[in-house]
Amino acid sequence: MKQLRPASMLCAIAVAVVSLIAVTRGQSVPRFVREVPWTGKGTWLKVDTHTHTRFSDGGRTVEEVVQHAAKFGCDAIAVTDHLDRNLTGATPEYFDAVDKARAIYPNTIIFGGAEWNIPPWNGEEHATVLVAPGAERKLEVFKREFDDQNRSKHEASLAAAGLEWLAANAVVDSILPVVTYEHPSRADGHSIENVPDMVGWRAVNDLVMTLAGAPGHQGTKPIGSYRYKETPMNRWDPAAARVGDAWDTLLGQGLDVWAAYAPSDFHTERLSDLADYWPGEFSETWVYAPERSAAGVMRALRAGSFFADHGRIVREVELRVNADGLPRAAAAGETIALPVDAAIVAQLTFVVPPTAWRTGPNHIDAVELIGIDASGAKIVAEGPPDTTGAALTFKTRVPAGGLVLRGRGFRILETGTRLAFYTNPVRIIVGR
Q1: What share of residues in the chain are helix, strand, coil (percent, to 5)?
Q2: CB–CB of 134/177 below 8 Å?
Q3: Domain span at residue 116?
Q4: H or E element: which one contains 419?
Q5: Residue 90: inside a domain, yes or no?
Q6: Do residues 325 and 339 lie in contact, with contact meaning Cβ atoms separated by under 8 Å?
Q7: Are 423 and 316 in contact (CB under 8 A)?
Q8: Angle at CA 131, nearest 5°, toward 296 and 44?
Q9: What span, in angstroms and rounded, lies between the C-alpha atoms of 24 and 44?
Q10: What span, in angstroms and rounded, lies between the C-alpha atoms of 335 and 426?
Q11: In angstroms, how far apart are the furthest CA atoms of the chain?
């Protein structure tokens, strides 16, 4: 269904990765190449960055959505109504309603964002767009110029132009927009089709850092409203859940993409099989932010400093990778350079709250570590979580082509259903 991007864009990404490795080899190691400066001194914030209201096709007001998000423990909530021309998302009245909600709920961080119909698919493919509050009203122009719903001509180049416009017009105090590719495999024949799309957008700039590893609409049947060929795996998009699929392919190509993300995509409360859980009620994304603010949330989202889960089953999930000579262990979103054959220790830790969405005692039953290297992606460690110390510890040596690690875990319900959590990756590249 999707249009492939030119091969030259793939080449550009490959050249960039090779150049990075070449520069790395000329410098001393071990060291951090990409660092999250607030690691070890940040704050955990629960966020939902994909919701809808009556300004598009939602059933509740902005105030009601924010009220319920706060009820279910969200520290930050984004209202992201559709940019369709026949709807009233990204209008002055829309942003007025967001500002009114901010006044009523001063302890909740509220974003006035949008859901973009990405060109050239006329509403088949969507991305949420978050900008700093000071740039939100500029999305009215973005809607008019770059949304693809019901345009007379559908041009792939308009997506690149939209990303360039955001980079030029929607940056406030050095806070770049965050664009997330939502429900990525919902309209695909196969989830691997997401690779050329992400590569093409990232050839323009790095605003599309994130894809929705888990779709919203977790209360619907079918889950996520995936009615075409691909279906969720343990409620997660196969692009993220299927080992070796689109997420792992992108990571293997050298693109840092964050998919440990689980929004609600709330439209209407779950009163039937065609409705949703409230923000924070079932799906959770937890960012580890430098501070409790809109800027802090956006910086964490861009940095990959977050994890996600379903069912409220875990807290404070951390994937750490350490090696001799590093000043500290690397965390999710970070890149370290190490010599070939250097010994590394990866550890997955988390807190299990006593109760969760499902009634009865809460528990995590299985954990896994996925590794991506030159040979491809595979599960490199798995089993029940250890009850003392880290839940999972994995020791290995750095292969010649480097290594990317990401973690996940599951609570297994009595029905056999598995509720999952996912981390973002830690990348290890080769230096000398």
Answers
A1: 25, 30, 45
A2: no
A3: 27-431
A4: strand 418-423
A5: yes
A6: no
A7: no
A8: 25
A9: 32
A10: 6
A11: 61
Backbone angles phi, psi at 15, to 5 degrees: -60, -40
Burial group, residue 19, by CB count within 10 angstroms (0-12, 13-18, 19+): exposed
- Domain assignment present for 144: yes
Position 6 in a domain: no
Report yes or no: 427 and 375 within 8 Å, Cβ to Cβ. Answer: no
Instruction: Specify if 86 maps to a domain.
Output: yes
CATH number, position 394: 3.20.20.140
Tokens encoding 362: 């809460």
3-state SS string for 111-160: EECEEEECCCCCCCCEEEEECCHHHHHHHHHHHHHHCCCCCCCCCCHHHH
* CB within 8 Å of 186: residues ≥ 6 apart: 215, 224, 225, 226, 227, 228, 230
pTM of the model: 0.93
Please count the CA atoms within 13 angstroms of the CA of 168 that sit on its side-chain side.
Answer: 9
Structurally, how many domains does the chain consist of?
A: 1
Other CB atoms closer than 10 Å to residue 363's CB: what's the count?
12
- The pair of three-digit structure tokens given for residue 405, joined into one six-digit string: 């690690």
Q: What is the pLDDT along the chain (432 residues), one digit of tens a residue?
A: 444 333 333 333 333 343 344 344 444 689 999 999 999 999 999 999 999 999 999 999 999 999 999 999 999 999 999 999 999 999 999 999 999 999 999 999 999 999 999 999 999 999 999 999 999 999 999 999 999 998 989 999 999 999 999 999 999 999 999 999 999 999 999 999 999 999 999 999 999 999 999 999 999 889 999 999 999 999 999 999 999 999 999 999 999 999 999 999 999 986 655 679 999 999 999 999 999 999 999 999 999 999 999 999 999 999 999 999 999 999 999 999 999 999 999 999 999 999 999 989 999 999 999 999 999 999 999 999 998 999 999 999 999 999 999 999 999 999 899 999 999 999 999 986
